[in-house]
UniProtKB/TrEMBL annotation:
One Gene Ontology MF term: oxidoreductase activity
Name of this chain's protein: Glutamate synthase (NADPH), homotetrameric
Segments forming domain FAD/NAD(P)-binding: 133-434
InterPro entries documented for this protein: DPD_II, FAD/NAD-bd_sf, FAD/NAD-binding_dom, Helical_ferredxn, SudA-like
Pfam families: Fer4_20, Pyr_redox_2
Coiled-coil segments on the chain, per record: none
Organism, scientific name: Methanosphaerula palustris (strain ATCC BAA-1556 / DSM 19958 / E1-9c)
Domain Dihydroprymidine dehydrogenase: 9-119
Amino acid sequence: MLDRKVNERIRDFHEVALGFSADEAILEAERCLQCKKPLCVTGCPVGIDIPAFISAIAAGDFSVAATTIKEQNMLPAICGRVCPQETQCEGACVLKNKDTPINIGALERFAADWERERGFSAEQKSREQTGRRVAVVGSGPAGLTAAAELARRGHKVTIFESLHEAGGVLSYGIPAFRLPKEIVKAEIDQVLAMGVDLKVNYLVGRSVSVPELLAFDAVFIATGAGLPGFMGIEGEQMNGVYSANEYLTRVNLMHADQFPVFDTPVKAGSRVVVAGGGNVAMDAARVARRMGARVTLVYRRREEDLPARREEVVHALEEGVEIINCAAPIRLLGDGVVTGVECVTMKMCGLDGSGRPTPEPVADQTFVIDADVFIEAIGQSPNPLLIREVSGLSIGARGNLVVDDDGRTSIGHVFAGGDVATGAATVILAMGAGKTAAAAIDRMFKEQ
Ligand SMILES: Cc1cc2nc3c(=O)[nH]c(=O)nc-3n(C[C@H](O)[C@H](O)[C@H](O)COP(=O)(O)OP(=O)(O)OC[C@H]3O[C@@H](n4cnc5c(N)ncnc54)[C@H](O)[C@@H]3O)c2cc1C
Ligand code: SF4
C-alpha cells in the first residue's frame, strides 16, 4: 500500500496510507492460498471468514466481500486501518514463513471503503423486537459492537456517551491522518441505522444516575481506559506538560490545530519531548510534528521492544521524529514553564513477566533535551468515576472491572468489556469483548 509523500503529509492531518486500487486488491487477493484450515481466522479476535472475503475480492465481487466481513465486524474500515494485523491474522497467515503474509488489513479496508463510497447496503432495524432494554455506557469500539449485536437480536439499545461525539478513542485519540473522522462517523451511523439510540453528553454516574442505569434490563459498561498515568517526576506540574490523552483530545476532538477558529487551544511548542513507546506515544509525536515542532521521543527500552505498531514507528521516523531508545525522563527543568527534560540512560537487565527486558537506570549517565512541551504517554487505566459509583462491582488490582468469560460483572445483569476490563488494549479486542457480552446478555434474556 502506498503512502503520501512525507513533505506533503507532514503539513496536514489527511490520511497517510493511500489504500489499494481495485487492481492492486485483486492482485493481492489472488496470492491467498484459500487454506482448508485457515490460520488467519484463528488469529482474528472476531472470527471474520477471511478466506471467503479474500476470495470474493479476487473474483471482483467487492460487495460480497464487504458483506462477508460485516457479518462478524461492524467497523471494517476502522479495523482495516488500525488493527495490529501483524500480530493477529497476518501474523498467523501461512504465507508468513514462505513469502510475505497476505495484506489482510489493506484488503479489509479496500472492501469496506469500496462499499461505503458507493453507498452502504445498511443493515436495517431488526423486525422482531423483544421489548428488552439494554443500556450501553461508552461509545468506543466495545460499546458500538455490543450495541450492534444486541440490536441485531431485536433488543432496544441506548448508548450513553459522556463526550459530545461518539467513537471513544477512535474519535478523540487516534489522529485523522491514521483514521479519518468521516470514516468513523460513517461506520457509527451504520450501527445507529440498526435502531440504536445514541445519547451524547451523558456522563453516567452524574447526568444519568446509577439507579436509572440499573433499571435497564441489562447494562454493558464499556467506559474504556481514559485515565492517564503520570511518571511522578519533579516538575510535572509545570506549564507545558500534557498527558498524551489530553494533548490528543485537544487536537483530534476539539480541533486545537485550528485555534482560534475552534475555542480550544494547545501549546504547540517548538521543541516537544514525548515519553513512551506505544501507539499513543507515536500518535502524540506525529501530531506534534504536524503542529510544527521538532520532536524527540524517549523510550526506556530498546528499539526492538517498542510496543507501537511497526508501521507507526516507520511513519514517525520518516516524518522526522527523533527516537532515543534506552533512556527515561527523570526531571523536568524550568521555572513554572518547562524548558528542558533531564533523562537518564537505561540498561537492560533480565526479563520481566511479559518477556521484555527490565530497564534499569545507569548511575550518572544523564543528559538534557531542550523542550517547551513535554507529553507523557506511559499508559492509561480505567476511568474510575462510574466504577466507584456502582456499589457491588468487583474491581481488580489495576482499577479494572473484574468480569467472567461472558463479560459478566459481580452484579447479575451488569456486563462489561473492552479497556475497562482488560486495561488499555486494542480496538479489535474491545470489539470481541462487546460481541461476547452481547451474546451472553441475549442468552440471559432467553433463560429468564
Ligand atoms: C492514542 C491512541 C492510539 C491507539 N491506537 C490504536 C491502534 O492503532 N490500534 C488498536 O487496535 N488500538 C489502538 N489504541 C487502543 C484502542 O483505541 C482501545 O483499546 C479501544 O478504543 C478500547 O475501546 P473501548 O470501547 O473499551 O473504550 P474507548 O474507546 O476508550 O471508549 C470508551 C468511551 O466511554 C466513554 N465514557 C467513559 N466514562 C463514561 C461515563 N461515565 N458515561 C458515559 N460515557 C463514558 C468515553 O468518553 C469513551 O468515549 C489506541 C489508543 C489510544 C489512546
Ligand atoms: S492463512 Fe493466509 S493464505 Fe491461508 S487463507 Fe488465510 S490469508 Fe489466505
